Amino acid sequence: MNKSASKAERAEAKKEREDREKRELRERRERQLAEAEKAAETLEGRLKLALSAERRCHVLLDHSKGFYEELDKLAKGKSLLEVTPLMLEQANNIIRDTKELAGGDIYLDRIKQFVAAGNNPVYPDVLVITRMVRDGMVRFRKILEKRLVILKVSLSKAETVIGALTYFLDDDARDGEDKNCPNRENVELYVDGNVSDLCFSKYGNCDEEYFDFEKLDRQPIAEYLSVNETGEANGTAANAEEEESGVDSADLDTPDRREKGQGEEEDNEV
Amino acid sequence: MSLLDPRAPLILGVSQYDVDFVIPRVGIDVPVGIDPFLLYKSRDSEYRQLHGYLLEAFGAGIEAIRHRHLEEAGRILDFPEVSAIGMGYTQRSKRGSGVGSYLTGLIIKTVLGSPSLQERGIRHVEEMQLLSAGIGPDRVSDIAANILKRFLIEYTKRQCVIWSLPVKNGVPVNHIYDVSSGQWTDSYEDLPVNPDDGSPILLVPRRMVRVLPWINYDDFLRTEFNAYLAAKRQAAAKHLNNYVKEQSGQIESNTKPHVTTVTRSDISLVERYVRSREQHSTEARPALDYIDEDACIEAEKLKARLAAIQPGREHAVDYQRLVLEISNFLFNPELIDGQPEVRTIDGTERRDIIFTNDSDESFWNYVRTTHDGILVMFEAKNTNELGLTEINQTATYLGDRIGRLGIVVTRRPPPETVQRKVFSVWNDSAPQRKVILILSDNQLRELMDLRCQNGSPTKWMQNHYRMFRTSVQ
Predict the structure, then answer these.
(1) What is the pLDDT of residue A255?
(2) What is the largest CA-CA distance in chain B?
(3) Distance between CA atoms of residues A265 and B360, nearest Å
(4) Which of B365, B470, B471 is the best substitution to test chain A (most A C-beta atoms within 10 A)?
C-alpha cells in the first residue's frame, strides 16, 4: 500500500515537474519570439536604410562622374585659374552629400568643403578633391554592398527563428510531433520565402536537418541574430577591411565577424 | 627746425605705417594729392557724402556761370592752394604755384567755352583736367582740399586725440566751405601747427590719396583720345579728302590745348572715358609709394614694444594702442580710420577698436558682404588666459550695427574651451553667423614679419578665416 502510494506520488511529482518544465519552456519560447520579432523589425529598418544609402550612393557617384569629367577637361591649362562660383557650389554640394552619406571614413572626414573667403579655389585643387571624394564613395559602396549581404542573411535568419518559434507555440500543429525538433518543412510553413540554412543542424547519423533550438538557447536572441554587433571581437580580416576602407567597424553589423571570433562551425557557411 | 632734413616728418612720435593719415613733411610736400574718385567709390557713406559735397559746390559754380553770374561763380569756384595738407608735386618747397585766382579764372573760362559742359554738368571734379589745359592733378587736389576742409579739420582733431598729438588752441583757419550755406567761412580751431611758421596742419586720410587721380589726363590721352584719333585717321584715309586730312592733322597734334579744345566741343569723349574709369573702380587703390620708412625696421620696433608690455589690466591701454598701431601697420589702407574706445550710442557698450572696411581686396570684400558690415571690430585682451567671458562679450557686440566678424587680439593662443566656445558662437548664430577670429602675440609677430617681407597680411587673414570655417564644419 505504502509502496503503491509512494509510486503514485512520485509519478504525480514527475508529471508536475514535466508540466512545469513544459510551461517554462513555452514561456521561454514566447519571450524568444517577442525578442526575435523585435530584432527582425530592427534588422528590417537597417536594411531599408542601407538600401536607401545604396541608391543615394549610386546616384551621387553617377552625378559626380559627370562633374569630375567636365572639371577634368576644364582644368587642363588652367592651373592658376579660380573655378567659377557655380563650380564651387557644385563641388561643395558633392563633398557635403558624400560626407553625410559615408560618415566614419577617416579620409573623407579630413576633406572639408571649400571656403571661398573672397577667392575661389583653383581648378586643380577642386579636381583633386572631387577625385578623392569619389574614391571615398567607391570605398563606401563596397562596404555597403557587404553590409547589405550581411543584413539580408541576418534578416532571413530572424525570420527563420520566428518561423520555428511560431511552429513551436502553434497549438494547432499536428499532435504527436516533437516540437523541439522542427525540420525544414515544418518551419517553412511559417516563413514567407526561404528559410536560413544557418539555423539548422544535423543530429547523429540522420540526414535530415532540424532547427537548432539548443544553439538558440545558448545565447540571447539579439546576439544570435547579431543585432547588437559592436565589432569589438573582430578578426584580422575585419581590421584589414577597416584599414582599407577607413570605415569604423562599429558602423557595421557583421555577424560573420563576431562568429568568427567565437569559432562557430557555421562561420564557413556564412 | 630749418636745419632738419626737409623730408623729415612734421609730426613726431608716430610712424607713417602705424597711423591712418599722411604725415606731412618738414620742408617739402608729400608727392600725392587727394583723389576725389576714392571718395566716390568708397563704401563708407561719410566719404561718399564728401564726394557729393564736391559735386554740389562745383555744380553751384557751373550753374552760376550758366546764368552768367560770373562774380558769384568766381566766389564759389575759389580754390586757393591748401598748404596745410602738405601735399603737392613741388619738390623744392612746401608752397605750390599759388594760382588760386588764376585757377578760378581758368575754370570759369573753360565752362563758358563749353555749352555742352554747361548742359551736362560734371560727374567728377577730375573731369576739369580733360577740359582745361591749365588744370592738372594738383589743382584737383586743391579743389578737393578746399571744399573738404571742414571734414579735414574734424578728422585732424580726432587723430590728435587718438595719437595724443600736441595741438594749439585757436589757430586761425580761413576759407572753409560751409556746405549748408554754400559760403566760404573762416574760424579758429584747435589744431597741430608747423613749429617753423605756426601755420595749421591738416591731416588727410591715407585712404583718399593717390599720386595721380584715377581719372587723369595722361590716361585719357592714352586710351579714349587715342581711339578717337585712330577713328579720325581712318575716316581721313577712306575719303582721301584734303579737307578732312587737314582737320585730322590739326587734331592729331595732341598737345593739351588742342585736346581740351576737342573735349570741350565733344563732351561725349569725356563721358565715355569717365564711364570706363567708373567701371574699373575696383582697381583704383590709394597710393603707398610715398611711405619711405623701412617696413622691417618698423616691424622690429613694434615687436619689441609688444614684448615689453606685460599682460594684465594695468597695461591694457598701452596694449590697446599698440594693437591699433600694429593693425594699421598690417592692414591700412584696407582697413581705415581705426578708432579706439568706440562707444555705442546709448553708451552701454564700448568696443576696443573699430575699423572701416573700405577695401577692394577680395577677402575684405567678402567679409563686408558675407558678414554684413562695413566695420571690423578688434578687441584687445591683454591677458594670458583668454576666457569664455571675453568671447561672450565679443559675440554680444557683433550684429547688425557692427557686422558679424570680430577679431580678438590676445597674448597667447586660446585654450581648447575657448576655441570650442568660438565654434559654438558660429553654430548658435545661424542663419546670420558670427565669426570670432583670435590672434595671439605669435601670430601678430608672424604677420609683421610677413609685412616686412612684402607679403600680404590680408592673404594670411584669409587663410586664418578659412581654417576657422573648415574647423567648424
Answers:
(1) 36
(2) 85
(3) 72
(4) B470
B172: β partners: B188
pLDDT over 60 (residue A262):
no
pLDDT at A188: 86
For residue A198, the model assigns a pLDDT of: 86
3-state helix, strand, coil in chain B (%, to 5): 50, 15, 35
Contact A243, A217 (CB under 8 A): no
Cα dihedral B162, B167, B169, B175 sign = negative
Total residue length of chain A: 270
Cα(A130)–Cα(A111) distance, integer angstroms: 10
pLDDT of residue B246: 56
Place of cell 514566447: A30
- Tell me, yes or no, if the pTM score tops 0.90: no
Rg (CA), chain A: 28
What is the average per-residue pLDDT within B139-145?
A: 93
Task: Assign B421 a pLDDT band (cuts: 50, 70, 90).
Answer: very high
Q: Is A110 on the interface with B (CB under 8 A)?
A: no
CB atoms within 10 A of CB A246: 18
Plot region of B240 (φ>0 → left; ψ -120 to 50 → alpha; else → beta): left
Q: Which residue bears the cell 600725392?
A: B32
Work out the burial of residue B451: count CB atoms within 10 Å of its CB; fewer than 13 is exposed, 13-18 middle, 19 or more buried.
buried
Distance CA B66, CA B64 (A): 5
A112 vs B contacts (CB less than 8 Å): 470, 473
Question: DSSP character for B16?
Answer: G
DSSP state of A120: P
Q: Which domains does chain B have, with CATH numbers?
A: 1-291 (no CATH), 295-472 (3.40.91.50)
A144-182 residue pLDDT tens: 999 999 999 999 999 999 999 998 888 766 555 677 788
pLDDT bucket at A49, cuts 50 / 70 / 90: very high
With CA atoms as reference, report the closest residue to A92 among B473, B244, B65, B106.
B473
Beta pairing class for B168-178 and A200-202? unpaired
Contacts of A119 in chain B (CB under 8 A): 362-363, 462
Select the residue of B361, B365, B473 nearest A112 (Cβ to Cβ). B473
Task: Find chain A residues with C-beta within 8 A of B367's C-beta.
Answer: 118
Contact B323/B409 with Cβ under 8 angstroms?
yes
Which ipTM value was assigned to this complex?
0.74
Most confident of A55-59, A181-185, A254-258: A55-59
How far from chain centre, in Å, is Cα B292? 18
Q: Report the gap between the CA of A117 and the closest CA in chain B (Å).
A: 6
On whether any CB of chain A is under 8 Å from the CB of B466, the answer is: yes
Facing A118 at nearest CB: one of B462, B469, B473: B462
Q: Tell me the range of A175-179, B7-11, B229-233, B367-371 where mean pLDDT is highest.
A: B367-371
Cross-chain CB nearest to A118 (options B365, B469, B473): B365
Q: How many CB atoms lie within 10 A of CB B313?
A: 9
